[in-house]
Design goal:
Elements: H1 2-8, H2 28-31, H3 34-52, H4 55-79
Helix pairs in contact: 1-3
Length: 80
């Protein structure tokens, strides 16, 4: 996780939020930015885990987030 945090902090600025105006086919790199979307997103999740200081509570808190994502993934797979 240290290398992930170092990667996030390697450049100033950057948000995990991608405004609709930036979510264009010509700007696809911004949506899938390893530093901003994946590493920074993971760092945010681990900060929450650290602040809760309770792994069981942390993992239970992810269930309501995970279930809709699983359904969306299943639907996307079905539609393909």
């Amino acid at each position: 996780m240290i290398s992930t945090q170092n990667n996030v902090m390697s450049q100033s600025g950057g948000s995990v939020y991608v405004p609709p105006s930036e979510a264009t086919p010509d700007n696809i790199w911004r949506i899938f930015s390893g530093r901003l979307s994946y590493d920074k997103g993971a760092a945010i999740i681990h900060v929450l885990r650290h602040e809760l200081n309770d792994d069981t509570l942390f993992l239970k808190s992810l269930i309501p987030i995970r279930k809709p994502l699983k359904t969306a993934q299943l639907l996307a797979t079905t539609l393909e």
